[in-house]
């Protein structure tokens, strides 16, 4: 793994298994939204793209404070010391977009989206 990589091979392995993703935002109010591991798309430069249909409270918060936390995991991926399951906590900044090449690619994959939530990863910590 390159020194500049923030998302480990273990993180990418977790994304290959279904599990819930929690997105915590705070600005207007503290809010938790949820999606699924299988809806996350990691770009070559390690941004995380998430199809958004709802996420209106999250968007209001991000317009005030663009910092977010994400948690995700899977019981099907071995963690530290062969623990049955592992998870990650991601700190990053977020923005929404609704046009452009990446939007078009996401819309083809997830026809229900109205916008894309983009997370620029600052840190990714394995928790288990």
Structure characterization notes:
The chain has 128 residues and is of the alpha+beta class. The chain has one domain (9-126): Pnp Oxidase, Chain A, CATH 2.30.110.10. Helix content is 20%, strand content 41%. The protein has 3 helices and 7 strands, in the order αββββαββαβ. The chain has a 7-stranded antiparallel beta sheet. A hairpin with a 5-residue loop joins strand 1 (20-25) and strand 2 (31-36).
Into which percent range does the helicity of residues fall? 10-25%
Number of domains: 1
Largest sheet: 7 strands, antiparallel
Strand order within the widest sheet? Answer: 2-1-5-6-7-4-3
The overall strand count is 7
Number of contiguous helices: 3
Strand content: 35-45%
- What is the CATH topology descriptor? Pnp Oxidase, Chain A
Global geometry: globular
Q: Given this structure, which CATH class is correct?
A: Mainly Beta
Terminal Cα span: 20 Å
Query: Helices and strands, in N-to-C order?
Result: HEEEEHEEHE
CATH architecture descriptor name: Roll
What is the average of the pLDDT values? 95
Question: Which segments are poorly predicted (pLDDT under 50) over 5 or more consecutive residues?
Answer: none
Q: In the CATH hierarchy, what is the superfamily?
A: Electron Transport, Fmn-binding Protein, Chain A
- How large, in whole angstroms, is the Cα Rg? 14 Å
In a nutshell, what does this entry contain?
This protein has helices at residues 9-15, 56-64, 101-109, and strands at residues 20-25, 31-36, 41-42, 47-52, 67-74, 86-97, 115-126. It is an alpha+beta fold and 128 residues long.
């Amino acid at each position: 793994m390159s020194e500049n990589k923030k998302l480990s091979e273990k993180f990418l392995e977790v994304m290959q298994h279904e599990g819930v993703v929690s997105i915590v935002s705070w600005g207007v109010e503290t809010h938790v939204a949820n999606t699924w591991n299988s809806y996350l798309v990691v770009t070559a430069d390690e941004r995380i793209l998430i199809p958004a249909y709802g996420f209106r409270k999250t968007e209001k918060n991000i317009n005030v404070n663009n910092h977010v936390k994400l948690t995700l995991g899977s019981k099907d991926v071995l963690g530290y010391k062969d623990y049955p399951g592992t998870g990650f906590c991601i700190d990053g900044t977020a923005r929404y977009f609704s046009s452009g090449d990446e939007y078009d690619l996401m819309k083809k994959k997830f026809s229900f989206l109205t916008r894309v939530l983009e997370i620029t990863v600052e840190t990714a910590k394995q928790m288990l």
